[in-house]
Design goal:
Radius of gyration: 25 Å
Strand content: 5-15%
Largest sheet: 5 strands, mixed
CATH topology of one domain: Immunoglobulin-like
Shape: globular
CATH architecture of one domain: Sandwich
Distance between the termini: 32 Å
């Protein structure tokens, strides 16, 4: 959705006239991920069993033959009795997705009625009116079963439970759209947030953070939700919170308010990290392990000394006995140690990388070196990346190291990238290289140099056929650059507010 929120996004269905356009059409964000999200939303709209029946009919009727999108939609229409072609067409024929705004009204008995409106959600400059989709909403009041409502006009009214119940317009986070609640409804949702259904909580967190990003919601509202998680340990919800905090902390670096925000962020997530600990519990699900890794890495990045000290202790034990650390724990531990390395620790990591017998472990060690914050050691990473010590089978590792450096040392990384472009991109095919340069370079280096200089360099190094990709990359870069001071101002204001002081 982040990619599709750009004004320069493209539709799933595209007309292709040459090889570069063909390569550009099969991007993971829109062609695949948006396509998957659309099918999931349609499945929820018509029902799982009915959806399967339609898919079986579609496969059987087109066996040993070609097929079009219309064949699929018609099969789903026949199985469901619903006008699936009319619902699906706007989602694949045009870019973007809707923002559904919700205005609630309560009668004397506390019953709630909603006015729903839609417009296109955009990453920057708010949202655009005029665009319209047929949006399969899933509305839940409280913890009741969700109810399907098709929003097929610019404005529509419907009933939705009671005003003292939490409200979700995207129950279970199945829909491919954003939702913006009016202030009173958002206040109720925040007050009841800890007891909400997991999927509804995730959808609300995702939407509020996206609305902060495009300027349609306040950071205070998002942080109020984050602070309302209580003792709930839903891994996906906490992942969203931590990603948002990480974006703010990065924006705050080198600002007067950085220390205060880092302390706030540490205090918010430390209880979750302490509860999960460093070691996986029996029968633990993978998403919990992913959350643990994220929490520990960010606590270290935000200056939590206890986390850094424990990582160093475990690394020392690992150097003596490689069996003391599980393979699953390696990336997180090495990342923390590498980021905070002094010269001696850096040398230890480097020796581990050069002596590794396993390619996966070798790459983990090298990438951990590239996380280092010490500027002198970062220059050593550049020398390593450009040397011949990295084995041929790891032919993309040198580029990964330089791009990883951009997080802590953007200018050093940029100067290396443009000075050794041919060497670093040697593993990228000539057909794909213009697309990589056009989109990935602005996303990686938006904070390294003035954006007009960045765009000029990229434009000089790509063919005209990649101009659409450059437009998408630069839109992302401009958004990130504009968001940075906005986040700093909002975060500083929140920490200085009576609302935060009262928590």
């Amino acid at each position: 959705m982040a990619a599709d929120a750009r004004a320069t996004s493209h539709a799933i269905e595209q007309h292709v006239t040459d090889e570069l356009q063909a390569a550009n059409s099969f991007d993971s964000d829109i062609t695949y991920s948006k396509g998957e999200a659309l099918l999931r939303m349609l499945e929820a709209y018509i029902g799982e069993d009915v959806f399967r029946q339609g898919i079986r009919s579609y496969i059987k009727s087109r066996a040993y033959s070609n097929a079009t999108a219309a064949d699929l939609w018609n099969a789903l229409r026949e199985s469901s009795g619903k006008n699936v072609p009319a619902v699906a067409a706007p989602w694949i024929e045009k870019p973007g997705f809707p923002l559904v705004s919700v205005s609630a009204a309560c009668d004397a008995s506390g019953n709630r009625s909603l006015t729903l409106r839609q417009k296109r959600f955009l990453l920057t400059d708010g949202s655009a009116t005029g665009a319209q989709w047929q949006v399969p909403l899933r509305i839940r009041s409280g913890t009741a079963a969700p109810r399907n409502v098709l929003l097929d006009t610019q404005e529509q009214k419907t009933a939705a439970g009671r005003c003292d119940e939490a409200l979700s317009i995207n129950a279970d986070a199945v829909g491919y759209y954003r939702v913006q609640y009016d202030a009173d409804t958002l206040a109720v949702n925040t007050r009841l947030f800890a007891g909400a259904v997991d999927g509804d909580r995730i959808a609300l967190l995702d939407d509020q953070w996206a609305l902060v990003g495009n300027g349609e919601a306040s950071l205070q509202d998002f942080l109020a939700l984050a602070s309302s998680m209580g003792t709930d340990r839903d891994a996906r919800a906490w992942q969203q919170i931590v990603r948002a905090l990480s974006s703010i902390e990065f924006a705050e670096r080198r600002s007067p308010g950085h220390q205060a925000f880092a302390a706030y962020a540490r205090a918010l997530i430390k209880p979750v990290a302490d509860e999960l600990g460093w070691d996986a519990a029996p029968q633990e699900t993978p998403n919990v392990g992913d959350l643990r890794d994220t929490l520990l890495r960010d606590l270290s990045s935000w200056g939590d000394q206890a986390t850094i000290d424990e990582a160093r202790r475990r690394f020392a034990a690992f150097v003596k006995d490689p069996h003391s650390m599980s393979a699953d724990a390696q990336t997180t531990l090495l990342t923390i140690v590498g980021q905070n390395a002094d010269a001696a620790t850096f040398a230890q990591l480097h020796e581990l990388a050069k002596g590794a017998k396993d390619d996966t472990f070798m790459e983990r060690c090298y990438v951990a070196l590239a996380r280092v914050r010490d500027p002198d050691l970062a220059r050593q990473v550049v020398q390593i990346a450009l040397s011949d010590e990295i084995p041929p089978q790891a032919n993309t590792l040198d580029l990964r190291l330089i791009l990883t450096l951009a997080r802590e040392h953007p200018r050093l990384s940029w100067d290396t990238y443009i000075g050794h472009q041919d060497q670093l991109l040697k593993s990228v095919s000539t057909e794909v290289r213009p697309l990589v340069i056009a989109e990935q370079t602005p996303a990686a280096y938006w904070d390294a140099l003035p954006l007009d200089q960045l765009e000029a360099w990229v434009r000089a190094n790509i063919p005209k056929g990649a101009s659409d990709n450059l437009a998408r990359g630069m839109e992302t870069a401009h958004h990130l650059a504009a968001q940075k001071p906005a986040l700093v101002k909002a975060a500083d204001g929140y920490l200085a507010s009576p609302t935060h002081a009262a928590r």
